[in-house]
Amino acid sequence: MRTCDHCEADLSNEDHRWELVEEWQICIQRENDCPEVEISIAYGIGEYCSEEHAMDVIDSYLSERNAEPTWADVDPVETCACCGEDFSTAERHLTLTMMELCGPEEAQNIYDAFYVARFCRTCEPPEGRDLFSENDSTPVEIIKPKWVGKEHPA
Ligand SMILES: [Zn+2]
Ligand SMILES: [Zn+2]
């Protein structure tokens, strides 16, 4: 049975679920087109019954790292959630993504997604670098996010 990683509520009959994922991303700017995101590694943190419970986990994730949510976009330069410095998103960097998923597990869709925080290389946790050095640079996935330029209501 799939349960909320925060309150253990049964998720098997829920139509909407929230998921938190650590992604190592490169943002690719396209002329006359939406930017794309190349995801090299994606590590699922957990899935949750509500946005509220995902937000609770986001709060503790960020406070452990002395970081603040930036609700980032896919711009060429973004602000690090930890040190507050601007950095180039053309470099591979850690992004915390919150996704709202809908539909059955076998055929789930991303209903909505937000980049909660982006971290510059200096502030990336050391385990991220270890994780990365074991892998080649073949991207897992390249996506054209439909939520570019959208602000989180929070
Ligand atoms: Zn819950
Ligand atoms: Zn930083």
Set out the fold topology.
Layout: E1 16-28, E2 36-48, H1 51-64, E3 77-79, E4 86-88, E5 93-102, E6 109-119, H2 126-133, E7 141-143
Antiparallel strand pairs: 1-2, 1-5, 2-7, 3-4, 5-6
Residues 4, 6-7, 9, 48-50, 53 line the site of one zinc ion (ZN).
- Rg over CA atoms, rounded to whole Å, is 15 Å
Low-confidence stretches: none
Provide the succession of SSEs.
EEHEEEEHE
C-alpha geometry? globular
| Percentage of residues in DSSP E strands | 35-45%
Biggest β-sheet description: 5 strands, antiparallel
Which ligands occur here? zinc ion
- Which sequence of strands runs across the widest sheet? 6-5-1-2-7
Report, as a whole number of angstroms, the end-to-end distance. 31 Å
List keywords for this structure.
single chain, 154 residues, mainly beta, two-stranded antiparallel sheet, 2 helices, binds zinc ion
What does this structure look like?
By secondary structure, the protein is mainly beta. The chain has one domain. The protein has 2 helices and 7 strands; from the N terminus they run ββαββββαβ. The strands form 2 sheets. The chain has a 5-stranded antiparallel β-sheet with strand order 6-5-1-2-7. A hairpin with a 6-residue loop joins β5 and β6. The protein is globular, with a radius of gyration of 15 Å. One zinc ion (ZN) binds next to loops.
